[in-house]
């Protein structure tokens, strides 16, 4: 397969890069000089924590690693993590209904009838406990299109499925079955194809990739294996379906990218690789694609025209995807851009096709160095904005655009969730339009490990490394 010369970020003109944005907002205000009434210095340091949440869930005894939102009923949110700090602690998860969270008044507190009464957060209750994992739950997903099933994956290598019967004001969860083919499950992604409903893909620590279809009517085999792939030679770290669900792209610590023809749609149009399984196959043996240290994140644009991968050293590789239209089927696999703006591993990627005229495709990358870099696909992935200290010196854990907008939401190990307006001349000079605090922060043990925000972004629900779920309102 021939590849055109890659676009190197180092060759961009200076005017292509927008402003570098510093953000030095403090998460925690501390008073270390507090004295008691007798003039003696208090032995206990007073720590003042800011909590912007409208609701919370604090039943988990240890870290939460993953969160998933129901595709039809966005108030239903599942979280998963560890049931305790011990090495042999089982996994634990919970199902919550965030609609119980009471909104805060729009007017400032000074307009309240009794300003001394500060608004209180609503305590959320568990609707259902996800049990049965012998090690931490580190990935959750609802099946598409209707969220009929909730699927969990754990560090015990087990995949468990529950059927969700949702009714007005109530939800009933019924265990369907489980499977265990690998040592550890790293991620689960639901297939969006209307022709292959209730199907999920997963990636494992041994590099394997599995595709299951769930059929609750078959009690003897409710998790039916559709495909399994074994080309990755190191842990499979991330995966994503194309918007139509025809293709599945996965990456690995061995610096490989494979785009799998799961359903044979590409082969039917004579678009397939030599191995008969993939339509794109790139590894570190191709020096243009090599990322020393591996790949850890992946995203596909809403039009299904390219896949972007992020990895060690701040590397971002953008690769074209095949077109499978009956009239004009074309191959993919061309390296469209090779970017190295950030200084450390890129472990989160997000993409948006803005609802503007003309529409703009934005690619955002979050790095372990605490920065966010935004690229403009229409300008050969030139740097549009580099927010150098988006989460200070703490890792950016997750990025997600509010659907079809210029608004980007981020969370980090500093325990803060932020929202950025990426339009030129946003609401502030820095582009920061919202900031929500409440998690402990401070790096390891207190960061935000994930969030969901629905399609409108009006409410953001987080999963914290401190074992707390918080609901924020925009």
Automatic annotation (TrEMBL):
Extent of the WD repeats: 130-166, 229-262, 389-430
SUPFAM superfamilies (UniProt xref): WD40 repeat-like
Chain positions covered by the region annotation Disordered: 20-46
Keyword Cytoplasm: no
Keywords: Repeat, WD repeat
Pfam families in UniProt: WD40 (PF00400)
Name the record gives this protein: 60S ribosome biogenesis protein Sqt1
